[in-house]
Specification:
Elements (H helix, E strand, L loop, with lengths): L1 H4 L25 E5 L8 H11 L6 E5 L1 H10 L4 H13 L1 H10 L7 H4 L9 H8 L15 E7 L4 E5 L4 H8 L9 E3 L2 E5 L17 E5 L15 H23 L4 E3 L14 H8 L2 H13 L1
Parallel strand pairs: 1-2, 1-7, 2-3, 7-8
Antiparallel strand pairs: 3-4, 3-6, 5-6
Helix pairs in contact: 2-4, 2-11, 3-8, 7-8
């Protein structure tokens, strides 16, 4: 995909897979970042990472679920957050290219509408992720600039599957495999679906990796009053968000991260990717919040 592949070839100050130079290694408390699930709302993750870059703070580890895994994989490859923002907005500005890639990745058939035996809009997540991720993202977790944990759901075992070794792209594809939209991914001897079904905000995976864990929760509900009966697709995705929000709420009761950030993105839906500019504008104040809270925590 030209839009995502053309700009960034190697991370500044090193090459993908190499040790970060000494000036990039954390001198103070080690910070880890958890990036949660939530579809298009996850574009707000980029702003949190921008705040870290502007403060000169490099995470020692990242854990991501669904859109958090996608953003985390690019950032962990050494791409500065400002560049991640440019890549995302440039890509999503070209609706024709995005829709073309979705069609190319579609495994459902129109005939499935009439047979009742399939989903005509079902997407092969591995094909789509392969086209969408920039070339700078290496093939394996071991080659990443920052250690990354990607969360998916083991469908048959009904539990969490965490990937931090081996191939990056199938793990990310599994993490974003939203039921009804992206077909399950067969990887590492397991059948996998969206990680948001078990761990939508994986801060718990980072507790032993750093001195301070910052988690970004984008599972909140819509703001404002009720607006009538939702359509079938909207109801399905909103229900997944309700489930994710409930899981996060229960996790927080047993132990919260050191810093919990909730960007102002509740008004946006899971598939509002073509509203990227509006999402980023609404979430922009989160950068100041991240800086204030980190400064307070680090003093």
């Amino acid at each position: 995909m030209d839009t995502l592949h053309h700009t960034f070839q190697s991370p500044p100050g090193g090459t993908a897979g190499g040790e970060p130079p000494a000036e990039h290694r954390p001198a103070g408390p080690r910070i880890a970042v958890a990036l949660g699930s939530g579809g298009a709302r996850g574009l707000a993750h980029i702003l949190v990472l921008e705040a870290l870059d502007e403060m000169g703070l490099r995470p020692v580890a990242i854990a991501g679920t669904s859109i958090g895994a996608l953003v985390g994989a690019v950032y962990a490859s050494g791409v500065p957050a400002r560049e991640v923002r440019h890549l995302a907005t440039s890509y999503l500005r070209n609706r024709g290219e995005v829709m073309g890639q979705l069609l190319a990745a579609r495994v459902g058939r129109i005939a499935d509408l009439f047979s009742g035996r399939g989903n005509p809009v079902l997407i092969d997540g591995e094909t789509f992720v392969e086209a969408m991720l920039p070339q700078v993202v290496p093939d394996t977790f071991e080659q990443l600039q920052i250690p990354l944990k990607v969360v998916a759901t083991n469908y048959w075992a009904r539990g969490e599957a965490v990937f931090e070794h081996g191939a990056v792209r199938p793990a990310v594809a599994a993490s974003i495999a939203i039921p009804g939209l992206i077909r399950p991914v067969a990887h590492a001897g397991r059948v996998l679906v969206d990680g948001g079904a078990v761990n939508p905000l994986p801060f718990d995976l980072l507790r032993n990796a750093a001195d301070l864990v910052l988690a970004v929760d984008i599972t909140g509900g819509p703001s404002g009053e009720a607006r009538g009966v939702p359509g079938a697709f909207e109801a399905m995705f909103a229900t997944l968000q309700i489930m994710a929000s409930t899981i996060v709420g229960e996790k927080l009761k047993s132990g919260a991260p050191d810093i919990l950030i909730r960007p102002n993105v509740d008004a946006f839906r899971v598939l509002d990717f073509f509203r990227a500019t509006a999402i980023l504008k609404a979430a922009e104040p989160v950068k100041d919040e991240v800086k204030r809270r980190l400064e307070a925590a680090l003093t």
